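User: I'll paste a sequence; please echo it back and then give the predicted structure.

Assistant: Echoing your sequence first, then the prediction.
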Amino acid sequence: MVIDVPVGLVGWGTYFPARIETAAELVECTGIPESVLREKLGIHQRHVAGPEDTVVTMATQASLRALEVAGVRGEQVNLVISHGSEFKDHVLWNAAGKIQHNIGAVHGYGFEVYALCASGVIALNTARSLMQADERLEYVLLAAASRENDLINFQNPRARFMYNFGSGAGAMLLRRGETRNLILGASYFTDGSLSETILFKQTPDAIGDSEGMLPNGYYGRLDVDDYERMSERLAEISLPNFVGTIREAVERSGAALADVKFLGISQMKRSFWHAILDALGLTPEQSVYLENHGHVQSVDQVLALELGLKQGKIKPGDLVVLSGAGGGYTWGAVALRWG
């Protein structure tokens, strides 16, 4: 792959609410034994947002940490891309502008990229492409936050695979002309036949006995139409699509799967995480399982990267892959050369 202008990752950061909910605490509301929550669904604990932890507030905190890591001032940022939850501070609203204002990026602009839990990997390639085409974009900030756990009715068995949702935020700062932590190849795929399976609905089944009204003008809960069809279809295609997009991203980087040293991937069932690692020829020591945070939408990739660095699993020269999948259903991956 020919890269006309290098774009590298120079800053990253996360933020998580103080309140922690353990698997033991989820037993009563879900009716699921703690051992199943921990070992099968992969929930040891998760962070839960309070009223003050809005999507923009959390994304701002993560963004400030990313700027601090990079040693960059807010006014140096030329563009803010928000790829966080659509369940945000206001309905029909561009959250990127508020994040931009909060960090002091007074000379830039902001917009949103949204593909649910695949948004982070898509935003990385979107930013890189814009930066390669526009010499004015020296620094671009990607910011996301989610409190999707508010949208789950724990008495709805169709939403069981979403019981692992947690709250938090992540941010990444990219620099044009930077050769450290270089962004390389990317790959994406959408199966549109699943585009209307996971929906935000106002039906009694979706809401259950809980209060239907949510903060900031939202009413309803997430639900699944034709759960059996969705499950059967995902069982057929999810593993091949994860592996296929990861392989293509790596090959577009001029490398092979055998060169991958670390995989940062969305939180999912533990057994499926192992299946993906096995299919890629990787071990659990070459990835991070996000059992202490839950699934935090498109924050998962920067969280996995941060934890991988803290745990010494990522070293200079390593080929790192960030991967995710979002309802709809979209799979994506981006490769980076670390160091």
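The CA atoms of residues 239 and 276 lie 7 Å apart. The first strand starts at residue 7 and ends at 15.
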